[in-house]
Write a structure and sequence with these properties.
Layout lengths: L24 H5 L7 E4 L5 E4 L6 E5 L2 H9 L2 H9 L3 E5 L16 H14 L1 H13 L3 H5 L21 H15 L7 E5 L5 H7 L4 E6 L2 H14 L4 E4 L11 E7 L8 H11 E13 L8 H6 L10 H8 L5 E7 L1 H17 L1 H8 L1 H19 L4 E8 L10
Parallel strand pairs: 1-3, 5-6, 5-8, 6-7, 8-9
Antiparallel strand pairs: 1-2, 3-4, 9-11, 10-11
Helix pairs in contact: 2-3, 4-5, 13-15, 14-15
C-alpha cells in the first residue's frame, strides 16, 4: 500500500471520508462489513464501518497501531494491542468476528512449535510452556476464576445466566457420579490447579493425589491443603515422568489434554496408573485440526506444541487400547459461558491486575479470554468431556 500513515489535519470528532483514510487496506476490507464498528484515529477523527450503531470501538494510539491495522495480519494487530498501540472497547466478542478475513502466517513462530520438542523433548517443552502460563502468582488467576470454586476449566451450564460456581459444582457432581467414586477411593488428578476438585472430593472421603509441573500450583495447594486440614499428596512431576508404583481408582484430567497431543503415549501412561475396573474423566477444548492455533496463542498464551483435542484422533487411539469409551458429551456452550464469565471478572479487576502484574499480562489474558469466548460461540472450537473405563474382566492388557 502507499504510505498514508502521516497524521492529517482533521478536527477532533470528525468522521473522515474514505478517500482520506489513514487505514489503507483495512478501510477497503471492511467498508461493507456486517458488524458495525468505529475506529478512533490518533488525530482525533473517527471512521465508521458497517451500518447502524457501532458495536465496538478501536482506538488507535500510535503510528505502529495504524501500521498493524493496515497490515490485516491478526498477529500484528494482537501485538499492537498488547503494546498499547491500539485499544478495544465495547462488545468484546464482536472484534473477533473479523478474524476470518485476516491473515496470520508467521513461519518462524509456527516452525518453532515443532522444532522445540524434537530438540529438547516433550517433557522439557511441557515444563517451559506450563511455566510461562501458570507460574504467575495465584492471585492473578483467582481474580477471574470463581472465588468459591476456582477451577480453570469449564463448568456445566443448564442456562447462560447461571453463576460460575453453580455450573462448576454441577460438573463436579457429574464427574464424581460417572467415575463411580465412593469414600475410601484414591484418585490422581493431573494438573490440580487451585484445588477446587480436590476440596470437593476430599469432603466426600476420597483420597487425593495431584501431579503438576507448575511450581506455583504446588506451592498454593500445599498451603491450601494445610489450611483446610486435608492430607493432599502433591508431587511436582510431568505425567510422562510419573511412576508412583501404585494404581488409582480413577484419574481426573480436567482441561489438560490440550497440553498432551501425543494421545497414544498418554493412554499408555494411563494404563499404568489406573486399576482394572477404574475410570478416567477427561475433558478439553477441541478442534477438528491438530495443532490449530493462532500466532498470538503460540507466542503469548500456550507456547510449545499445544493442541486442542482432536476427537477422531483421540478416539482412534482409544480403540487401540483396552480402554472403553463409556461416554462422550459435547458441551461447547458451557465453555463459551465459562469464558465469558472469566473475561468479565478479569475486566472487573483491571486496576488490581495492572497494578500488581502489569498492563501486558492484563492485556494478553483479556485478548485470550474474550477471543476464546467467540471461538466457542462461533463453533471454531468445541468442548468434549469423556469417561473411559478399563475393564477388569480379563480383556487382554487389562491387568
Amino acid at each position: 500500500m502507499t504510505e498514508t500513515l502521516k497524521i492529517g489535519t482533521a478536527k477532533a470528532g470528525e468522521t473522515r471520508p474514505a478517500k482520506r483514510t489513514l487505514l489503507g487496506r483495512f478501510a477497503a476490507q471492511y467498508s461493507n462489513i456486517k458488524t458495525p464498528f468505529e475506529v478512533n484515529l490518533p488525530d482525533g477523527s473517527t471512521e465508521r464501518f458497517g451500518q447502524g450503531a457501532p458495536t465496538f470501538t478501536v482506538s488507535v494510539r500510535t503510528q505502529n497501531g495504524l501500521r498493524a491495522l493496515s497490515s490485516l495480519d491478526e498477529g500484528k494487530i494482537a501485538e499492537a494491542y498488547l503494546a498499547g498501540d491500539i485499544d478495544l472497547d465495547g462488545d468484546m466478542i464482536k472484534p473477533f468476528e473479523l478474524r476470518g478475513t485476516m491473515g496470520d502466517f508467521h513461519l518462524i513462530t509456527e516452525a518453532w512449535r515443532y522444532i522445540q520438542p524434537l530438540l529438547f523433548g516433550q517433557v522439557h517443552t511441557n515444563k517451559k510452556a506450563i511455566s510461562s502460563h501458570y507460574d504467575i502468582d495465584s492471585s492473578f488467576f483467582l481474580a477471574f476464576l470463581d472465588p468459591v470454586t476456582p477451577c480453570y476449566t469449564q463448568g456445566v451450564y443448564e442456562s447462560a445466566d447461571e453463576g460460575l460456581d453453580v455450573a462448576t459444582l454441577r460438573k463436579f457432581d457429574y464427574c464424581f457420579e460417572k467415575l463411580k467414586l465412593k469414600a475410601g477411593d484414591h484418585i490422581l488428578e493431573v494438573g490440580p490447579g487451585w484445588g477446587a476438585w480436590f476440596e470437593y472430593a476430599s469432603k466426600r472421603g476420597v483420597k487425593c493425589t495431584g501431579i503438576s509441573i507448575s511450581k506455583e500450583s504446588i506451592r498454593f495447594l500445599t498451603e491450601k491443603g494445610k489450611k483446610l486440614g486435608h492430607d493432599w499428596e502433591l508431587i511436582e512431576s510431568d505425567l510422562f515422568d510419573y511412576n508412583p508404583g501404585v494404581k488409582y481408582d480413577a484419574v481426573v484430567i480436567m482441561g489438560v489434554i490440550e497440553h498432551l497431543p501425543d494421545y497414544a503415549r498418554v493412554l499408555a501412561k494411563f494404563r499404568t496408573l489406573v486399576k482394572p475396573g477404574g475410570r478416567i474423566f477427561l475433558d478439553g477444548s477441541a478442534c477438528t485440526k491438530k495443532f490449530e492455533l493462532s500466532s498470538f496463542m503460540v507466542k503469548y498464551i500456550y507456547p510449545g506444541n499445544h493442541s486442542f483435542l482432536v476427537l477422531d484422533d483421540f478416539l482412534n487411539k482409544v480403540a487401540k487400547t483396552p480402554f472403553q469409551c463409556e461416554e462422550v458429551f459435547n458441551d461447547r456452550m458451557s465453555y463459551c459461558y465459562t469464558f465469558v464469565q472469566w473475561a468479565k471478572n478479569l475486566d472487573a479487576h483491571k486496576d488490581f491486575l495492572i497494578e500488581k502484574f502489569g498492563e501486558f499480562n492484563f492485556r494478553r489474558f483479556r485478548l485470550y479470554l474474550w477471543g476464546a469466548s467467540y471461538e466457542f460461540l462461533s463453533r471454531s472450537l468445541d468442548c468434549y468431556r469423556l469417561i473411559l473405563w478399563l475393564p477388569d474382566d480379563g480383556y487382554p492388557g487389562s491387568e
